[in-house]
């Protein structure tokens, strides 16, 4: 198991893109990683865009960047909600400062934009937020997955296999 001993935090709120949350969680667990689901409230069910629920294990206020090797941000409409929490933005900033692996897919770039960590970073996302990414100082490209140091970005659900392959490689080497 390539990621045994690694702990990843997956942040969530309602209206996440179901596949963009669950596919990475299962792939990382298959590789031996521990994945913790964090949301505004611990022990609460959050519902994806297509009705698939996830129960949070940790509240945003209890997150500690020192405890995790990586962060995952799913897409959907969830990122527009997630970026409104100061605890989420603080976590993203701290993980970025510490060069811990940060994975973002689809609309998840909104969270990184609000954390102000994309200046000069090469990324991708859903084309719908291309202008937002560029206006935040990122170099946006239309590719299935982009790795720029510790930041791994991807466009949409069909790109999930490429996204997870690269995310796992980067995390494995940290």
UniProtKB/TrEMBL annotation:
PROSITE patterns: PEPTIDASE_C56_PFPI. GO terms for biological process: proteolysis. GO terms for molecular function: peptidase activity. It holds the Pfam family DJ-1_PfpI. Residues 7-169 form the DJ-1/PfpI domain. InterPro entries: C56_PfpI-like, Class_I_gatase-like, DJ-1/PfpI. Keywords: Hydrolase, Protease. Belongs to the peptidase C56 family. NCBIfam families: PfpI. This is DJ-1/PfpI/YhbO family deglycase/protease.
